[in-house]
Amino acid sequence: MTALTECRQAPLAPVDYDILDKKAEQVLAFRDRIVTVLEWTRDEYGDPVQRKIEVPAGPEVFKKGEVSDRLFEALTRPVHPTHLAVHLTNLSYHKPWTRGSEAWRVVVSDMMIDLEGVSEYAIIKVCEMFRRDHELHYFPDTAVLVKKARDLDWSLRNVNVDKPKPMPQKREEPQLPVKNHKSRKRVARIMKIGGRPPEKWTQWEKRFMDAIKRKADGERAAHK
After folding, report:
1. CA 104, CA 51: separation in Å to the nearest integer?
2. Which runs of consecutive H residues, i.e. helices, occur in 132-202?
3. Per-residue pLDDT tens for 52-79?
4. pLDDT higher than threshold 50 for residue 18
5. Domain locations in the chain?
6. Which tens digits make up the pLDDT trace of 102-136?
């Protein structure tokens, strides 16, 4: 398959986009790619620890069926610069642009350069995503919009046949606690309390030792 380089003579109308989108969803699956990253935070004692969080990393497109040459060309046909301005303006009706008309002209002019050659379908689909985002109240950050449109355009042109199998996860070795003044004091306190019979512990000491036990049990469970 080869993508067309010729732009449409008129902007892709909403009714035509809906027809094209329905045909695409019959043979393609659109998903958000999620990756796991490590983030530094602090535990209940104020010590620095790392935790795993999942973050979005751009769209993925997979085949569910055969994509005809005609459909592929329709999905990847690049947007005309003036048609891009139409689609961005339509989005601004839903998510208002608040920095004035002069700034709007500069932004649109720059995005015509940033999104040159990008699929008109991908741009409309990304605008649709922002339009339906109930947590977004104003026009999105332009760098984010450009990245999402380019990511989707790339995924459409390099559509995967099947969802790749997950790579086997390498078991991570437990991280050693960060040794600082607070952690040394806590170890000394544990040793001091643990050296006495539990029935002689104060209420505060019981709560402290219970918290230490819960944390240790959680760390062991996480590395099983």
Report:
1. 40
2. 142-157, 181-194
3. 777 666 677 888 888 899 999 999 999 9
4. yes
5. 14-157, 181-222
6. 999 999 999 999 999 999 999 999 999 999 999 99
Token pair for 159: 């559509």
Q: Which long-range contacts (CB under 8 A, 24 or more apart) does 3-8 make?
A: 3/72, 3/73, 3/76, 3/77, 3/78, 3/119, 3/157, 4/73, 4/76, 4/77, 4/78, 5/78, 5/117, 6/77, 7/77, 7/78, 7/79, 7/80, 7/83, 7/120, 8/77, 8/80, 8/83, 8/120
Predicted TM-score (pTM) above 0.70: no
User: Torsion-angle region of residue 36: left (phi > 0), alpha (psi -120 to 50) or beta?
Assistant: beta
32 in Cβ contact with 56 (< 8 Å): yes
Q: How many whole angstroms separate alpha carbon 58 and alpha carbon 43?
A: 30
Q: Is the pLDDT of residue 27 over 70?
A: yes
Q: Which residues contact 214 (CB under 8 A, 6 or more apart)?
A: none
Query: Which among 92, 95, 89, 87 is positioned nearest to 135, based on CA atoms?
Result: 95
Residue 130 identity (one-letter amino acid): F
Query: Distances in Å between the alpha carbon of 7 and those of 18, 81, 82, 101, 151?
Result: 19, 9, 11, 27, 20
